[in-house]
Amino acid sequence: MNKLENLVNWFGDKRTLIALSGGVDSALVAYAAFQKLGNSAIAVTADYKTLSQEELISAKKIAKEIGISQILLDYNELENEEFVKNDSNRCFHCRQELGTRLVQMANEMEIDLIVDGTNLDDLGDYRPGLQALEQKGVRSPLVENKFNKNDVRKIAKLVGLSVYDKPSNSCLASRIPWGQQITSERLLRIELGETLVKQTTNLKQVRVRDLDGIAKLEIEKEKIPLLDQQIIKEIEEKLKTIGFSNLIIDPEGYRPGKINVIAD
């Protein structure tokens, strides 16, 4: 419990904006901030059109569970040309825009502190978005209090957050390899594709990568044997109805950050 106490006390008495996604990391940060600050802690969830509806619903549920006030920041990332061209700095452009909007909101509300849900394990991957947020002055209390993902899940379960075991997720644009343009049509079929796979298999950790119209399906490696030929055929037929041309099952399974090397 000392780690939780340290996290709670880290917030001091500053009014705080918490960038709340639909995942467990920012949920724990929002919980800790609310425990310390009450109504001086405000959750902000960015609905930037590359966040799946599943994640948006999850973020609203988390805020309600905690009791924290929540603001929805509504804008369209597809209007950002640097983001849409989808080069290796896509995440930087995404988080730079988000950071700018959070800073603007904080200034308007006379709030001094903006925080996110980055934990120590996030620092090991290629994450240009973290650099962009840091440049905007967004702080990461989980990093500063030395929380890794296991710490987060353990304490989230302890305090009763329903998302304590929720699989990690990322924006829908992360399913499109660098160099292939991001469009609303591709994002929609990715989102629908992942929903169809989850409904067909009852699996929770699912990625449908859009490789120029070919669906590359990633699930946890140990779960791949559960996909018999009948299920694969059913998934492929469903994916074709929403615009995919073919289905590939990735034999290596899902791992975070895989989009960074997907074009290899």
Topology:
Layout: H1 2-10, E1 16-19, H2 24-37, E2 41-47, H3 53-66, E3 69-74, H4 81-84, H5 90-108, E4 113-115, H6 128-135, H7 141-144, H8 149-158, H9 184-201, E5 206-211, E6 214-219, H10 229-241, E7 246-249
Parallel strand pairs: 1-2, 1-4, 2-3, 6-7
Antiparallel strand pairs: 5-6
Helix pairs in contact: 1-2, 2-3, 2-8, 5-6, 9-10
Give me the CATH fold name of the largest domain.
Answer: Rossmann fold
Averaging pLDDT over every residue, what do you get?
Answer: 93
Major sheet: 4 strands, parallel
Radius of gyration: 19 Å
Task: Tell me the count of domains.
Answer: 2
Order of helices and strands: HEHEHEHHEHHHHEEHE
Level-1 CATH class name of the largest domain: Alpha Beta
Query: Uncertain segments of ≥5 residues (pLDDT<50)?
Result: 260-264
CATH superfamily heading of the largest domain: HUPs
**Termini Cα gap:** 44 Å
Class by helix and strand content?
Answer: alpha/beta
What is the total tally of β strands? 7
The geometry reads as globular
The CATH architecture of the largest domain: 3-Layer(aba) Sandwich
Summarize the amount of helix as a percent range.
Answer: 40-55%
Quickly count the helices.
10
Main sheet: strand order: 3-2-1-4
Give the amount of beta strand, in percent. 5-15%
